[in-house]
Amino acid sequence: MEPPTWYVTASVTLVGMYVTAVLFRSLRTRRCNSTVLLHGKTCIVTGANTGIGLQTALELAKRHARVIMACRDQNKARKAIEYVKSRTENGSLVFRPLDLASHASVKEFCSGILEEEHSLNVLINNAGVMGHPYQLSEDGIEMHMAVNHFSVFLLTNLLLPKLKGNSPSRIVFVSSALHKRGEIDFENLKGKQTKGYANSKLANVYFARELHDRLADSKVDVFTVHPGMVDTELARHSVSNWLWKLLYPLKLLLIKTASQGCQTVVHCAISEELEGKSGGYFGSCVQEPWPDISSCKDTQLKIWKNSKEITGF
Ligand SMILES: NC(=O)c1ccc[n+]([C@@H]2O[C@H](COP(=O)([O-])OP(=O)(O)OC[C@H]3O[C@@H](n4cnc5c(N)ncnc54)[C@H](OP(=O)(O)O)[C@@H]3O)[C@@H](O)[C@H]2O)c1
């Protein structure tokens, strides 16, 4: 028995809409087109077990890098390494434990890198949390500020000697366009935040800009990326499963896959055309003007001073 005409028409329309949406999304996503090979280069990717970090690790491994997967969960890291290995035989992948909710863990991770790794060429500060329920880290800091900013400040500064020693080298901050909604309350940097994610990403952006200024005489380039809206596990604390499913048509049109979402990160980490062009803010593999809110030297200096005190760096 033949299916009714309405059924055939509806099916063809739905498939057509699906294909158009997927094509639309991939056409408006720029990919990193660098063909550079990374033999002998070591890259750290924090939060490399899933999402943007995992796809970044894959792209770097495809280009023959040694990738240090800095993750807090050994089992997740092992699965991520299997995932990358099943897609490329290039590169070498190493797991090193790192929990950004603990300064002790950050220090241990950095000691391992400084003492045991021969070289370090790229640091990608990717790991982050969003919508985390109120909780203090091991060091008594609200979780967004702890993971997304203070530990990144500590980690980056502790690894700087190695990055300087292996220059030209790069540091990439995976920030967010939501930093524009952030506010820094210097009276309450460690405590409960009203907009924890945005605030922490803004603090992080000020840090990246101040770091760039301080590295002006070096060959360590600093880049900040906003990846756009990407389909990852980032909303695990904030969006319920059924709401996420309802958003599926929107996902097809507007939200990038993690593989698409990592492209600007990879571009900033490896593209030869960016060598020596430190300090930029990037989206869709293109440099963009810094938003006004992230351009204040006084706040940069104040964030640096406070972060130094709070992390004891
Ligand atoms: N997705 C987006 O639309 C979007 C937009 C703008 C910016 N970003 C930024 O992109 C970055 C990557 O996020 P994503 O979207 O790929 O999210 P994701 O899939 O949730 O990945 C986040 C990664 O960070 C790790 N992480 C979280 N807390 C950690 C901790 N205490 N110590 C060490 N690692 C920790 C996670 O490890 P576990 O798996 O063990 O939790 C995971 O590997 C984040 O900085 C995020 O702010 C994302």
From TrEMBL:
Domain of life assignment: Eukaryota
Keyword Flavoprotein recorded: no
Keywords assigned: Membrane, Oxidoreductase, Transmembrane, Transmembrane helix
GO MF assignments: oxidoreductase activity
Pfam families found in the cross-reference section: adh_short
Transmembrane segments: 6-24
Protein name from the UniProt record: Retinol dehydrogenase 14,Retinol dehydrogenase 11,Dehydrogenase/reductase SDR family member 13,Retinol dehydrogenase 13,Retinol dehydrogenase 12
